[in-house]
Amino acid sequence: xxxxxxxxxxxxxxxxxxxxxxxxxxxxxxxxxxxxxxxxxxxxxxxxxxxxxxxxxxxxxxxxxxxxxxxxxxxxxxxxxxxxxxxxxxxxxxxxxxxxxxxxxxxxxxxxxxxxxxxxxxxxxxxxxxxxxxxxxxxxxxxxxxxxxxxxxxxxxxxxxxxxxxxxxxxxxxxxxxxxxxxxxxxxxxxxxxxxxxxxxxxxxxxxxxxxxxxxxxxxxxxxxxxxxxxxxxxxxxxxxxxxxxxxxxxxxxxxxxxxxxxxxxxxxxxxxxxxxxxxxxxxxxxxxxxxxxxxxxxxxxxxxxxxxxxxxxxxxxxxxxxxxxxxxxxxxxxxxxxxxxxxxxxxxxxxxxxxxxxxxxxxxxxxxxxxxxxxxxxxxxxxxxxxxxxxxxxxxxxxxxxxxxxxxxxxxxxxxxxxxxxxxxxxxxxxxxxxxxxxxxxxxxxxxxxxxxxxxxxxxxxxxxxxxxxxxxxxxxxxxxxxxxxxxxxxxxxxxxxxxxxxxxxxxxxxxxxxxxxxxxxxxxxxxxxxxxxxxxxxxxxxxxxxxxxxxxxxxxxxxxxxxxxxxxxxxxxxxxxxxxxxxxxxxxxxxxxxxxxxxxxxxxxxxxxxxxxxxxxxxxxxxxxxxxxxxxxxxxxxxxxxxxxxxxxxxxxxxxxxxxxxxxxxxxxxxxxxxxxxxxxxxxxxxxxxxxxxxxxxxxxxxxxxxxxxxxxxxxxxxxxxxxxxxxxxxxxxxxxxxxxx
Length: 744
Ligand code: BGC
Prior knowledge:
alpha/beta; six-stranded mixed sheet; 26% helix; globular
C-alpha cells in the first residue's frame, strides 16, 4: 500500500498504565495460570476452553487489527503496537497476548523507524534459487529469531504467488514459477520460522500475480489450471508446514474478492486442505462482515471497518451465528497455542548481527546462479589477475534491494541516501551498503582495481580496455504496488554492457534483479552471474563466487525468456483511474473497501506457467528453468523408476570435475497424452553435495499428486492410467536420463 507509515501515535490519548500492562502481558509473562495453560492439552482443546470463557466484546477484539494510517481509521489502542504493520489487542484476563505482526519477507521490516536492526537476507526468489530446503529452513529460522528479538510474534512474510507474469513487481518476494519448488520451499521457510515460536503466514491467496490494479482486478482462469498451478503451490506449502495463517489477497477471482471467496477460503482451504489456522485479509482486502465471514475470512487487517462494531451487530441480530464467530476465534487462538506464542512469548533482545550476516552470505552463495561461463572465464585467479575494471550499478558503495512492504531497512544505512529522505521510503530505491568494489579489492590485493559508474559507456569501456577483466554490475529495481514496464535493464545499461564487452573480451556481468531480465548482449560477454537482490552480505558472497572460494550451485527458479514477445501476455493489463484508489483523498480506504470498478485479466495460458508455457509453445528461451552452472561437472546414471502409489525414482549423480560442489538434481515427468498437459512438469528435486570423483545415489518418492491432473467434476486429483515419462538431470533442458513407466 502506498501509505505504509507508522501511525501518528500522539493524536491519541494515553491509556492508564495498568491497561497498558494488561495489553502486553500473556499468562506466561504474568505468571497466572489458567486451565488452558496446561501444555499437555492439544491446541484445539486449549483454544476451545478459552473460547468458552470469552465475552462477545473480547471475541470481537480478536477479529481485527487496530488500524493503520492511510488504510483505515485507527483505534487508540494502536499505541500498544510494537511498530509493525498489524497489531491485535490481547486479553490479559485470560492470559492471551496481543498479536504483533510484522512484514518479514527477506528480513524484518520497519527496523529503521523503530530504532532496531534487521538482517536483510537475499530476496525470497534467491532463496528459491538455492533449491535447498535446509537453506530455506535457515532462512525462516533467522527471520523468526529476529522477529522475536524485536518483540513480534507473527510474520506477514511467506509470499508464494507463482511467477505467471515475470513483470510483476513482487517477483523478488516470491519463489519462482513452479508450484512444487515454491510450495516445498515456503513449507521449509515456515517450518524454520514457526520453530522459533512465531506465527507463520503464507500469502497472497490467491492468483494475485500482478500488482497493477491489485485492489480491483478480476482474475479469470480455468479452474483445473488454477488447481494445478497457483493453488497447488499453496496446497503443498500447507501440507509441508502446518503454517498457522493464510493471508487472502486483494484481487477478485472469478468475480468475487479473494477475501470473500467461499470456494477459496472454506471449500478448498479449510475443508479440502484441512487448514486449521486462520485467514487474515491483506491490508484493506476486507469488503464486508457477513459475506466475508460466511466465506471463511477470520480476521480483518489493518483496522475494523467490518470486523468491529459491524460484526458485533451482525452477531447480535443473528445475521452471523455465534458458531461462525466462535470458529474464527477458535482458529486464531489455536494458531497461537500451536505455534507456542502463548507458552513462549517473545523476549526482546539484541539481534545476532554477526550470525545474521554469516547466514545472509552463505544463503547468497548458494543462491547466485552462474548463467554463462564461456572458456572457464570464472573463477578468477587472484594470484594471476593484475587489473580489474569494476563498472556500474553503484558497485563502489552497495547493492540494490527490493521495495514495498518487503523492504528491509538497510543494515548500516542506505548506501545512497535519497536526498532529503530518511532510511527507506515507499518505493525509494534502497542500496544496501555491501560494496562489490571493496569485496573484489579484498580478494585481489595485488591487482589494480578501478571503478567506473557506467553512466558514460565510453568512459566505462576506456577503463575496461586496459584491464585483464571487466566486471560489470547491472541492476533492475522492482517493488510492490508496481509492475515493470519491461524486462529490459533500465538506464541504457544494455548499451553500456555491449560497449564494455566490445572493449574487453573478458567481460563478466553480475545482474542484480528480482527476476528475469532480457540480455541482448548475451553472446558478447564471457560470463554472467545472476545475483538477485543479494542481501546484507551480498558483495562478499558474489566475490567469493567470482574468485572461486565458493563453487556456485544455484539453479534458476524462473525461466529467462529471449524476448518479452515470447511471454503469454504482451503487456501487463493496467487499471483505468476508476479502478485505482486515490491516496490524495481523505479516506482512500473507503474507496477500496466499498469496491473499485473491476477490470478483467484472463489467464488464458492456464496451467502453462513459466517453462510449461515455453515448452508447450515451442519457444526457445534465453536460460531455462532449472539451469545453473558450476565450476565442476556432473554426470547422471543408473535411473530406475519403480511404479507404485508414489513412484520411486533412483539414480546416481557423480562429480566428474576437480572441485567439490553441490548439484541440484531435478526430476520431471510427462503425463499420458490423454492428460493434455504441457510436455513436462517438475515432480521432485534434491541438492546433493559431492567431492571430486564422488558419486551418490539419489532416491525420491514422487508424490502421486504431482503426477496427477485435477478433475474438476470429481473435485479430486486423478492419476490417469498410462505411460509416464521420467526425465532426470541438472536443468529442465538438460535431462540425460529418461525412463517411461506405465502407471495405473
Ligand atoms: C501487502 C502485504 C503486506 C501488508 C502489510 C499489503 O499492502 O500486500 O503483503 O503484508 O500490506 O504491510
